[in-house]
Amino acid sequence: MSSTRRNFLSGGLRSAGLLALGGLACDGDRPHAGFLGLMENVNERFQRALFDPGRLAPELSEGEESAPEDFPAYKISRELPVAPAGWALAVRGLVARPLTLSVAELRRLPATRTRVRHHCVEGWSAVASWDGVRLAELARLAGVDRRARYVEFRSFDSGYWSSWDLESALHPQTILAYGMNGAPLQREHGAPLRLYSAVKLGYKMVKYLTEVSFLPVRTGGYWEDQGYEWFAGV
Amino acid sequence: MPRSKQPWLIRTTHWANLVFLVVMAGSGLRILAAYPFLGERGRDYGWYLLQGMRPPDALTIGGWLAGARHWHFAFAWLFVANALVYGVYLFASGEWRRRLFSPRRDARNAWGTLLHDLRLRREAPPPVGLYNGMQRLTYTGVLAAAPLLVLSGLAMYKPVQLSLLTALLGGYDAARAIHLLVLAGLALFTVVHVVQVVLHPRTLAGMTVGRDLGPEERRAPRETRLPEEAP
User: Fold this and answer.
1) Per the CB < 8 Å rule, is B163 touching A55?
2) Among all residues of chain B, which has the CA nearest to that of A2?
3) Looking at residues B189-193, what average pLDDT do you find?
4) Is A50 within 8 Å of chain B by CB?
5) Tens digit of each residue's pLDDT (9 = 90 or more) over B163-176
6) C-alpha A52: how far from its chain's center?
7) Residue B69 C-alpha, separation from nearest chain A C-alpha, in angstroms
């Protein structure tokens, strides 16, 4: 056997061995573990470094809104979730003044409208306009403590939930929405109140909200705990 | 001593690139499978003939959307780092001069090679140095496509934080289409590339162990040739 070919074979075997080792550290079924989990941390740092709290997503025109049937609505409950009687949003955690707000009270707060492109983790995009209150406004009303670094959102959709970094939550295009496309929020889109944001993927935007908690530590989320990326900024 | 035909840095980055590209393509196709349409919701691109067709599972890596995304965004860094090492070496070493397409040197030669490959011309123009003109044109095209692949990927990954880049590429959905089209182009290149290697196996040894198999060796007596090089 020529030395050329011997080198070729031994080089190939070495490479195959390294690949096998690398493959063990990459398991798509456990994306938060091993090399993939390590790189998720790297990517979170990259995304946080890239995130500019003052950068706004382009606001779009009414003509760019997707037709209602082209804006999908996902839920995890089998049936459309129904708001419990006497529904009110609770704002709690590291706040000076815990709040309980009905829809009528939320509608009396300074309103904002944002019409931006929606990015789903699946790859599709669509456009709608959203009416609501900036989360930053609620944070101001509740008096969020300096120690709060994360925000957790809970819902009445079979316990669907998520948690965010504080910076993204306080972005001016992150709102608690009670209206969509100029009309009251429909049940399939999360009525009476949902989280909407220009700076996160769709699965971070909890619908059917019940509770917003400002926390010193990060928690997880419905999809995040199953393996989806926690930061998920856009 | 003549310079090695394929320096070790080029060989190493070439094979590392193969591994990373396979991972990126496989995980990318699994991500595409989650929504196998191009164009925004309600405004599918009419020109895309594969609307709604999921890539075959056998071509995908990651198992499910979350797994594939983790593979994709982990290996993207390795892919880019490897490409940067290659790019810096290519220019710092001067290798670009004998590898990249130069119209004055390569245009006629490329055209002649194309005619020969299409069986429209009997004689193939001889290679000019390391490669013939068609090889230089193709390899340079592939190298030029790589930044577009990375930029369109970033435009999709961060359409708000990098909104200028995304707008430059025509928007989120256009970036997604560009990303897939460049992949299709690279896949086509790879098929032709592998066919050419099968037809000229000594190039595989050159790219692997770097043994110089230049014109001198080609003129070597028949009995010293490796069996697969026998006519």
Assistant:
1) yes
2) B226
3) 94
4) yes
5) 999 999 999 999 99
6) 17
7) 8
DSSP 3-state of B87:
helix
Kindly state whether A18 is in contact with chain B, defined as any CB-CB distance less than 8 angstroms: no
Which of A35, A122, A197, A229 should be substituted to probe chain B, the one whose Cβ sees the most B Cβ atoms within 10 Å?
Answer: A122
Distance separating alpha carbons of residues A206 and A209, to the nearest angstrom: 7
Q: Which residue has the tokens 């119209």?
A: B103
Touching check for A40 and chain B: CB below 8 Å? yes
Q: What CATH number is associated with residue A109?
A: 3.90.420.10
Residues facing residue A177 across a β-bridge: A132, A194
| B110-135 pLDDT tens trace | 999 999 989 888 888 898 888 989 99
CB contact under 8 A, A123 and B176: yes
Q: Name beta bridge partners: B44.
A: B39
Q: How confident is the model at residue A15 (pLDDT cuts 50, 70, 90)?
A: low
Interchain CB distance below 8 Å, B70 and A19: no
Q: Judge whether A113 lies within some domain.
A: yes
Predicted pLDDT of residue A25: 81
Domain around A170:
60-226
Q: What domains, with CATH codes, occur in chain B?
A: 8-229 (1.20.950.20)
| Nearest alpha carbon to residue A228 among A36, A23, A50 | A36
Residues of A in contact with B67 (CB under 8 A): 27-29, 31, 36, 227
Could you tell me the CA-to-CA distances from A232 to A11, B172, B223 in Å, in that order?
39, 16, 62
Cα dihedral value B160, B166, B171, B172, nearest 10: -60
Relative orientation angle of helices B8-33 and B65-92, to the nearest 10 degrees: 150
CA distance B154 to chain A (A): 10
Q: Tell whether A189 is covered by a domain.
A: yes
Nearest Cβ partner for A117 among B65, B159, B211: B159
Total number of domains constituting chain A:
1
DSSP β-bridge partners for residue A214: A93, A151
A 194-223 residues with CB < 8 A to B = 198-199, 223
Q: What is the pLDDT of residue B139?
A: 94
